[in-house]
């Protein structure tokens, strides 16, 4: 099995990084240079508002949008400062909270058993150290946390953890014990916490010591900035996407890193020489004139990523529908048949779909609640096998996932951590015609809407002339097929009606102008009337 990391930065406006496994695209990361990424950055902010009803504070951290800080994301140190000292012992001694920073792929802080009201912890104007853990979505600002995490290559610095830990993804007890012994021998400063990341499982004492020294130097700089700089101010900014991805994604299983731009190549090579010198020979510069993603056949696959229907290799398909807070995935068998056996057909399609669902969630970066509607299976063993296949398929995902058992309706519900908007929301904008629904009114429906407006206008005594502008197809429908009905409205309301069609406008375009007997415009609030809004007096 061969794995390659391809980095495309020839277009300055966008950076794309793909992980290809045996020629198949398995992971894709896209970042636009005109879109600032705040996730992972640390700021010294000011509490500007407190909302007791939702137990949250809004923090000005200097980027123009206030961040959202929930009580569950507040470190117990702040409770102690406010005079609350009871029941602040973490629930889990061997783990720290995992809500923030999926890129650490490790664990999470323990939470206090009892939390005081947020209005008793903070006041407006309080200065607070926060880290962005989730990008803002729509009108919502970024989500913040006071649980600070600073990643190195093999370690994560957790200033408030106060002890040494090991990633939960390292399951071998002997390896975990060995790593703890090494970290204790290195004698990290008291009061600071460190977690050995999954990438540090097979590292030597020298490599861990180098990473520890780097994080300590970085923390010293951060502490000095905290003391000297007034809030709101940025204290620490995450590395650019190339360095960040190599740091978090690269493992010994990746055979090569190929970069298609010389400056980015030099920057990545320098980082690898410092952080992982044994692998520096695996990075190379791509200098072919043919675009790198095109040569590897990725552009065509990427163009299909955001399509609603995804076809499976042996037949069947999955259909993905994304809403504001939920993703619905439907599995269809299509023309695939297995030995004319309905149960076996459903089982094999579901097994293929489970792998593809996990892959699509990674590629599209879908998050939130996800409902998978698999084909119904009667055998309990088949249901459990599909669940196992889905769980195994999401293991390589850096975002945290939680998968429930199959429901009585054949649904498998799951959640996936959402750190930033999905790839679809980053690349596309909402259609101004259908507003994201994917459908527009038919010609007949628009014709009926025009008739309702004309009848409403004919009931107004001061309106004598009505001019309507619609799409060309709607105008032809009204002027040709509905001429008699229009004549009736003109006769009954003693008004003149003019229907004009314009080419190259969206199907639901509708303009209505009304005039009196002298040709003066008459105000006519037809939109409010159709939508059921009361008229203002």
- Any idea what the shape is? globular
Uncertain segments are 89-112, 531-537
Calculate the mean pLDDT score and round it.
83
What's the total number of strands?
Answer: 24
Q: N-to-C terminal Cα separation, in Å?
A: 74 Å
The overall number of domains is 4
CATH top level of the largest domain is: Mainly Beta
The radius of gyration is 30 Å
CATH superfamily of the largest domain: Nucleic acid-binding proteins
CATH domain topology of the largest domain: OB fold (Dihydrolipoamide Acetyltransferase, E2P)
In short:
The chain is α+β, with helices and mostly antiparallel strands. Helix content is 30%, strand content 24%. It has helices at 76-81, 173-186, 205-228, 241-249, 262-275, 292-295, 298-303, 342-364, 380-393, 423-427, 443-458, 472-481, 483-493, 526-530; strands spanning 3-8, 14-21, 24-32, 42-51, 56-60, 67-70, 127-134, 143-145, 150-151, 155-158, 164-166, 193-196, 233-236, 256-259, 283-285, 309-311, 317-322, 326-332, 368-373, 401-403, 411-416, 465-471, 496-502, 510-515.
